[in-house]
Amino acid sequence: MRYAALVLALAGAALxxxxxxxxxxxxxxxDGQTTTDPRLVGTWIGAGSDDKSGMAIQQKGPIYTIHYSDxxxxxxxxxxxxxxxxAELMDVITTSGLAFGIPVHMAVRVWPESGKxxxxxLESDWFRQQAKQSLATQPSSDATLITTQGDPVVQFxxxxxxxxxxxxxxxxxxxx
Length: 176
Known about the structure:
By secondary structure, the protein is an alpha+beta fold. The protein has one domain. Helices cover 19% and strands 39% of the residues. The protein is built from three helices and eleven strands. An eight-stranded antiparallel beta barrel has the order 2-3-4-5-6-7-8-11. A hairpin with a 2-residue loop joins strand 9 (137-140) and strand 10 (143-146). The protein is globular.
């Protein structure tokens, strides 16, 4: 009972970042499966004329750091990139505002192009349903927390993450 209460508290605190409705306590990308893409590095701003969001992406070896900001929030992340076919998928880990000091992982798909970056959290109803069927999960309000540890989480992302049903509308950013 204490474990379930802790999991729900962590999920609720993690959702305060407002990022994704599918989160994990464990990585989606294993250290040995990381890759890099130099097109991700740079300062990116929202493509819409009224979009005040932006992010600065830096690369340190196989790890990316992201500083995201908009009119309301400023959040820092650490990311690991992997490829599944021609899809580029990231394990995005919150590093600022950590509830109880526990990083929360989110799955993201990216499409870096010349001067443009498309970005979307993998959190569709279909993707969350696949998580519930494939992994140990815990509901928290309108979110799903993956509690499975180890390789099954990595294999889940590989199996379902590149599927177009895993995400909805993409965010478009342009290089500053």
